[in-house]
Write a structure and sequence with these properties.
Blueprint (H helix, E strand, L loop, with lengths): L1 H13 L2 H21 L3 H21 L3 H11 L2 H8 L1 H11 L14 H16 L4 E5 L6 H5 L2 E6 L2 H7 L10 E5 L2 E7 L15 H12 L3 E5 L6 E5 L2 E4 L3 H11 L7 H5 L12
Parallel strand pairs: 1-3
Antiparallel strand pairs: 1-5, 2-4, 3-4, 5-6, 6-7
Helix pairs in contact: 3-4, 7-9, 7-11
């Protein structure tokens, strides 16, 4: 015990403020990197990369010339491999750097009235078994998806959303993207999730909603035309079978309007790989 105390005492005397800040920053970066890859496909790829590096040093120690030559020439391109293999995680990580509270004033959030209009219209569509997918922008901009759709730039209202998702409307096939209190565009096509763990029962709407919630911090709500269920997607996680109270609570909580109650937060929450949705 005394040796341990003496070691830390000597170390603290030798460390400067610059060293302490340096260690804290490196620790923070490693922590954020772990958060980025934890629980996702990137974690397995990181483990595989580390195994290759360990095998490289082991081949040098064991004097395995052929293995060492192969790994040495392979690891020379590890930088390019990281960009290719981890492009989705790197894009999401860099985007998250801009989500600091200091910059949130740049992206207007949806008001409580807009969220109520959204919830009311989605529940009406669910009763009528009309399929719909709606995306609400948060801190990460969705401009590229908006520009690929049909521009609306209209105030979000119950009548507008029901008109857009009317099966006879030319705009019903695709997503409506909401920025603040305005419907920015309709008929927007979203990235389909390529998560291999998703159930085959998930339809295209649900996979697209999961995809946009994986690539950005946006939230997506889907109405299934086959079951009439309302599903809520956030960070690649799907919550299905929401009633009116739960949907409003989740919308307001996700958009920073209020905190959801513990009972509403727990209700119906499952991983996208745990419940098949049609």
């Amino acid at each position: 015990m005394e040796v341990f105390v003496e070691f830390w005492w000597n170390l603290s005397r030798e460390l400067s403020w610059n060293d302490a800040i340096d260690i804290l920053l490196v620790s923070f970066l490693f922590y954020k990197l772990f958060q980025l890859v934890r629980g996702g496909r990137a974690f397995q790829m990181v483990v595989g990369t580390l195994l290759l590096i360990l095998l490289f040093f082991a081949s040098r120690w064991a004097d395995l010339t052929a293995v060492n030559w192969l790994l040495r020439n392979t690891l020379a391109y590890i930088g390019f491999a990281i960009i290719v293999l981890y492009q989705q995680e790197l894009r999401r990580g860099l985007a998250n750097l801009g989500r600091a509270p200091l910059f949130r004033f740049l992206n207007p959030t949806s008001s409580k009235g807009t969220l109520d209009e959204v919830a009311f219209s989605l529940l009406t569509l669910a009763e009528r078994r009309v399929g719909a997918i709606l995306v609400l922008e948060r801190d990460i901009g969705l401009r590229s998806y908006v520009e690929a759709g049909v521009m609306l730039d209209a105030v979000v209202t119950y009548d507008l959303l029901l008109s857009v998702f009317n099966p006879k409307s030319p705009l019903h096939d695709g997503a409506v993207i909401i920025q603040g209190d305005r419907a920015a565009a309709a008929a927007c096509f979203l990235p389909i999730s390529i998560n291999p763990q998703l159930g085959k029962e998930l339809g295209t709407r649900h996979r697209a909603a999961i995809g946009i919630s994986e690539d950005t911090d946006a939230i997506a709500i889907v109405v299934s035309e086959e079951t009439g269920l309302v599903s809520f997607m956030e960070d690649g996680v799907i919550v299905s079978g929401l009633d009116a109270k739960q949907l409003r609570s989740k919308l307001r909580d996700a958009m920073g309007q209020k905190d959801a109650s513990p009972a509403e937060t727990r209700s119906g929450s499952v991983s996208a790989t745990e419940r098949p949705i049609t």
